[in-house]
Q: What sequence folds into this?
């Protein structure tokens, strides 16, 4: 049996690449005690600032059942705070703490290492991202 038995399955290509890329983050994130989904949340908060949980979920594409316990763990570690919105008591806003802000260099290092590991030019990376964004947007409309 050849190594490329599933090459005709786009789903397998996407799954395989996703696992590989996520695994590349591990050596940078594990020493900081972070998982890849936690990395996504922290990067989101460093880029947009304090945010309601729903907005973080949309940005990271993490469902509520995954996101809520993840945010609680990050809050328990002192990396972010979870507070009721002053304008909507039903909404909880996540904000980075000083300890969370201190992880910015780790987050940046993770992004740089992955970019360097891809073996693609900046133009190729952007083209791939554009294609993946269009696919994700399309699939969002199909699922809705």
A:
């Amino acid at each position: 049996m050849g190594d490329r038995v599933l090459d005709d399955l786009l789903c397998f290509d996407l799954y395989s690449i996703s696992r590989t890329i996520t695994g590349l983050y591990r050596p940078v994130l594990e020493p900081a005690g972070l998982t890849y989904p936690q990395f996504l949340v922290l990067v989101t908060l460093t880029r947009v600032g304090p945010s309601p949980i729903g907005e973080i979920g949309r940005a990271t594409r993490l469902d509520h059942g995954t996101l809520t316990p993840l945010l609680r763990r990050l809050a328990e570690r002192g990396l972010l705070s979870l507070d009721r919105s002053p304008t909507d008591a039903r909404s909880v806003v996540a904000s980075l703490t000083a300890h969370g802000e201190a992880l910015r260099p780790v987050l940046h290092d993770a992004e740089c290492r992955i970019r360097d590991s891809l073996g693609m030019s900046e133009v190729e990376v952007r083209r791939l991202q554009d294609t993946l964004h269009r696919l994700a947007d399309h699939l969002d409309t199909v699922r809705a």
User: Anything to note?
Assistant: The helical segments are 10-29, 36-48, 53-60, 64-76, 98-101, 104-117, 122-143. The chain has a mean pLDDT of 92.
